[in-house]
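Lab meeting, item 3. Inverse folding demo.
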């Protein structure tokens, strides 16, 4: 159960965020209750503690303390201005708009600027919510000081979180997700015709989640490790394990089908395995395969302290022996390839264990295991931290800078929301402003804002229904209401990264309880909440569409060009190294490719969302993203193979590989040029299939044939995927995409 929790919440980030916020609020309520503070101030303290806790996002404890210390005077100034301007409608509204602009503009100064802007906005909103006045200002200032002190206590004393500890939990999550993926792959062996599609969907989901966790781990390496060399080693081992697991899944899919499975099957929702196949069957080879998949899962998951003993060493030795063709069963070539894939995955598991847990007992090692350890030791010794300058990209200036554009847009949208909100309610117009503000957070295009506004409205409607029922049940029971508020706050933070609709539901249900505590609850108030939310979302969409708009197509095109550029860099660098040249830091280049693809995937959500009316466009967007995921997989695999070149005894440079890569890199550049400028005259290159180079006597070398074959197969699949991108992206020469 702990492994399942660790896998579902990598690093326990959601659990920690929810618990830390709840503890900060509970501690604040306890202190204020002991001081016999009235209920409105209790509500203000709870909201201030929540803001002070979730606004601070730095990873290191020192910067967190500085931001929290700076946040208190910002909060005091904000609540004071809110109390002073509460009765001055015009001046208060103008200041609110200026505050919103400043808060959003502050994002350009990093996490601290974002946190201080968020604290300033939310505390001003708090002053409106509790109807702060000059007479209540001293009490509110004291409440804020208590809330910030309790937030600091929860963060640094009761629930401390260090970068090293977070990284350690994320590594455990990676192992757990790796083991879950192995279990799904084992299910694929026995899945009948009726169940294979569901298992394939689970396999896609498990592969995607493993990749997501790998990116999270790699993003925390710099802060959570002792030095750059250790970070680079862990990055390589994580990448090796991910690639080995993904390759094993593809080999299993191929073994199930009568012909080699297209890589796209693992990345495109709805793609199916060919119906004709050789599995599931029950024979000696497949029985051994089932056994060894379970054994591999054990290798991945078992902690170092439980991995001692002759039996464990025997299992490890047997799996690693498959790399050297030891004890391969009599079976079809596709099934034998799966056993070889098991050997490669076992080697990746060994490397991951050595990197995470340190040296292991070597007394029971077989010759195959000794060779694998020697290879891993040679790779570790060869790691050198690259001192290359980071990629710098020109940032737009003036109104085209993202933070400036967003600040102008949200200021205009908030002005519209204030005007419309005042017409709906002179008392609670600020809900419209809050919604307008929130739909601009972490969004960068009109389509993203539209989808986020829709999700917030849906969650609000459902939350109003729940709030009405809960308010009737709770009635005058103050502490019961506060307990439910804490529960909903935890649920809000725990579900926020998973579903914005669920988060909005818990927020609105919590507000129904807060209104009950403030004796201002009524069904009309919650219905007004829906109206103000709809108005705020509409104002946000209007502002995004009219004021300095960034259309979804433009943003996705920019991100698509970035992905293609990173793909070309990885492919060129990997093949250069495999051809005898210097490819640079390929693991880091592959990570940049994966991050660029993750950004693109998020930006295309408005195009692939179920509410999108253009079905053909939705299918095309999914097809393009799936092709790019296929390209990224082959790029990562090429980079991983090239990184082994200096130390691996069975890999040798082959200068003829460079010729097989030229067309691919050229065509990637042509597609990027057409996406960036549809008037581009660049043309795709065609020629003989790279697969033809796999024929005997062309590129096969007696000693290094299998590795060369694998590289060429990756290049072949990459060539096919790049050609497949041409037609849906408007470049002549590729196959038609579904729905076009």
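The presenter then showed the designed sequence:
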């Amino acid at each position: 159960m702990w492994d399942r929790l660790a896998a579902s919440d990598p690093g326990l980030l959601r659990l920690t965020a929810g618990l830390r916020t709840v503890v900060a609020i509970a501690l604040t309520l306890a202190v204020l209750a002991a001081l016999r503070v009235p209920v409105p101030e209790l509500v203000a303290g709870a909201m201030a503690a929540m803001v002070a806790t979730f606004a601070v996002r730095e990873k290191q404890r020192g910067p967190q303390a500085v931001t929290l210390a700076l946040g208190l005077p910002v909060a005091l100034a904000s609540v004071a201005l809110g109390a002073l301007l509460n009765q001055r409608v015009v001046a208060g509204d103008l200041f609110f708009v200026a505050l919103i602009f400043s808060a959003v503009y502050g994002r350009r100064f990093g996490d601290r600027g974002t946190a201080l802007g968020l604290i300033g906005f939310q505390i001003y909103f708090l002053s409106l919510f509790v109807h702060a006045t000059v007479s209540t200002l001293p009490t509110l200032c004291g409440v804020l000081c208590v809330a910030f002190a309790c937030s600091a206590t929860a963060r640094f004393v009761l629930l401390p979180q260090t970068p090293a500890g977070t990284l350690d939990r994320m590594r455990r999550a990676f192992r757990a997700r790796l083991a879950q993926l192995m279990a799904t792959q084992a299910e694929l062996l026995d899945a009948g015709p009726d169940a294979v599609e569901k298992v394939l969907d689970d396999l896609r989901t498990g592969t995607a989640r493993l990749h997501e966790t790998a990116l999270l781990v790699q993003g925390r390496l710099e802060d959570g490790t002792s030095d750059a060399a250790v970070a680079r080693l862990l990055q390589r081992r994580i990448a090796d394990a991910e690639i080995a697991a993904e390759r094993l899944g593809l080999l299993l899919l191929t073994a199930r089908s009568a012909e080699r499975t297209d890589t796209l099957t693992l990345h495109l929702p709805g793609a199916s395995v060919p119906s004709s196949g050789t599995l599931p069957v029950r024979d000696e080879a497949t029985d051994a395969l089932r056994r060894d998949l379970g054994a591999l899962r054990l290798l991945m998951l078992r902690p170092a302290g439980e991995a001692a003993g002759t039996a464990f060493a025997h299992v490890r030795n047997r799996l690693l022996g498959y790399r050297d063709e030891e004890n391969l069963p009599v079976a079809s070539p596709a099934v034998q390839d799966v056993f070889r894939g098991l050997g490669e995955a076992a080697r990746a598991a060994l490397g991951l264990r050595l990197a995470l847990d340190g040296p292991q007992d070597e007394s029971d090692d077989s010759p195959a295991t000794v060779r694998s350890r020697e290879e891993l030791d040679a790779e570790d010794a060869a790691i050198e931290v690259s001192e290359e300058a980071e990629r710098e990209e020109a940032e737009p200036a003036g109104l085209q800078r993202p933070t400036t554009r967003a600040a102008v847009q949200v200021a205009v949208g908030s002005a519209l929301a204030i005007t419309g909100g005042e017409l709906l309610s002179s008392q609670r117009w600020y809900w419209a402003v809050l919604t307008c503000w929130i739909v601009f957070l972490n969004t960068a295009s009109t389509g993203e804002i539209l989808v986020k506004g829709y999700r917030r409205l849906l969650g609000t409607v459902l939350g109003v229904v729940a709030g009405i029922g809960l308010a009737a049940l709770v009635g005058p029971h103050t502490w019961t209401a506060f307990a439910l508020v804490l529960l909903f706050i935890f649920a809000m933070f725990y579900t926020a990264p998973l579903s914005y609709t669920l988060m909005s539901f818990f927020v609105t249900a919590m507000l129904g309880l807060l209104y009950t505590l403030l004796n201002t609850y009524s069904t009309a108030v919650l219905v007004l909440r829906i109206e103000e939310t709809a108005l705020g979302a509409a104002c946000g969409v209007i502002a995004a569409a009219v004021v300095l708009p960034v259309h979804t197509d433009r943003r996705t095109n920019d991100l698509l060009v970035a992905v293609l550029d990173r793909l070309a860099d990885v492919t060129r660098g990997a093949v250069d190294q495999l051809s005898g040249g210097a490819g640079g830091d390929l693991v880091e280049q592959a990570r940049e490719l994966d991050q660029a693809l993750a950004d693109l995937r998020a930006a295309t959500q408005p195009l692939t969302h179920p509410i999108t009316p253009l079905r053909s466009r939705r299918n095309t967007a999914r097809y393009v993203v799936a092709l790019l995921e296929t390209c990224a997989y082959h790029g990562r695999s090429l980079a991983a193979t090239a990184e082994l070149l200096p130390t691996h005894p069975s890999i040798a440079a082959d200068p003829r590989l460079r010729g097989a890569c030229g067309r691919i890199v050229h065509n990637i550049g042509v597609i990027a040029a057409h996406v960036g400028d549809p008037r581009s005259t660049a043309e795709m290159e065609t020629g003989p299939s790279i697969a033809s180079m796999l024929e005997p006597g062309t590129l096969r070398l007696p000693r290094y044939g299998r590795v060369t074959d694998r590289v060429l197969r990756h290049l072949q699949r990459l060539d096919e995927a790049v050609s497949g991108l041409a037609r849906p992206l408007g470049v002549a020469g590729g196959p038609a995409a579904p729905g076009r």
